[in-house]
Structures are given as C-alpha cells and as structure tokens.
Design brief:
161 residues, 11 strands, 3 helices, alpha+beta, globular, two-stranded antiparallel sheet
Length: 161
C-alpha cells in the first residue's frame, strides 16, 4: 500500500457529515424546525426539548436574517407570530434566553418594544414579516421555532457522539 493510499484511507475514516433530522432546516451552526402547530410558550419550549432542542436563541443579526429567510419560505403556512426562547419572567425588563439563562447580547426589537403591555408580556416572539421581536403574553397561541445542534454522522450514517 502506498503512502498516498494510506493517507486517503485515514482522511476518509475521519470524514463526518453534518446533517439535520428530517423536517429540520440546516443553518450555519444549527438545525431549525418551524412548527405548523400553535401552542402557548411553555408548551412550545417543552416540545422543542422533546426533540432534544430548545426554542430558538438568536445570537446575532446574521442568524436573525437566516431565520427570516426560513420563515419567508413558509410564510403562507403561518397564521401567527413565532415563539423564540426569550423571557423576562424572572425580573421584569431583564430579558434572557430561558434555555441558557444568558442575557441578550443581540436584540432586534420592533419599534416601541418591549413594552410589557398591561404588565402581562413576558415571552418573546418574532414577527413573520420584518423579523423583529415583540414581547407578548405567554399564554397566547403562536407557531414556534426550535433549534438544535447539527448532528455529525459518519459515512455510513451513524450519529457520532
């Protein structure tokens, strides 16, 4: 066996493919699922966790734009805004990502938001047009966006790690 053949075998043995489960859309660093169902925020969070994910955490303008593109592709199927992972339930006005308890580094609030209208709006939604954010009552029914890590698989399709 030549050195070139050995190097090729070693390279192929270490090759992994990044993929998302069926029904999920691959982003730069994550897989996203947009639910056709509408549920309250806490149920949306539980459903995402059942899929080994969380409600979407939007870390920067690039990710917000990517989610916007995904939403645009299915906008006709949506009847409401979409829940994402943010909340200020612990301390009013201090927004954090519920899955990580980290405060927002990036924000994309709609004009005059968050406004905590009638002191009842503690959960975060994204508008399906414009892709800006709004605080809303956690008990309304919305579509939602789940996010999970991209799975690495080997060449025969087995999940690694």
């Amino acid at each position: 066996m030549t050195i070139l053949q050995i190097l090729l075998i070693i390279s192929l043995a270490g090759l992994v493919l990044s993929c998302c489960p069926d029904g999920w859309i691959k982003g730069k660093n994550s897989c996203y699922f947009i639910s056709p169902r509408t549920v309250v925020w806490s149920e949306a969070s539980s459903i995402c966790q059942a899929f080994h994910g969380e409600l979407a955490v939007i870390n920067d303008a690039e990710e917000n734009a990517l989610i916007g593109k995904i939403i645009t592709n299915i906008r006709g199927a949506l009847t409401t805004n979409l829940w994402i992972d943010g909340s200020d339930r612990m301390i009013e006005g201090e927004w954090y990502w519920a899955s990580t308890m980290e405060r927002f580094d990036y924000k994309n609030w709609a004009i005059n938001e968050p406004n905590d209208q009638k002191e009842l709006e503690d959960c975060l939604e994204i508008y399906p047009t414009g892709f800006t954010w709004n605080d809303n009552r956690c008990n309304i029914l919305n579509h939602f966006i789940c996010e999970k890590e991209i799975e690495a698989t080997d060449l025969v399709g087995q999940i690694i790690g």
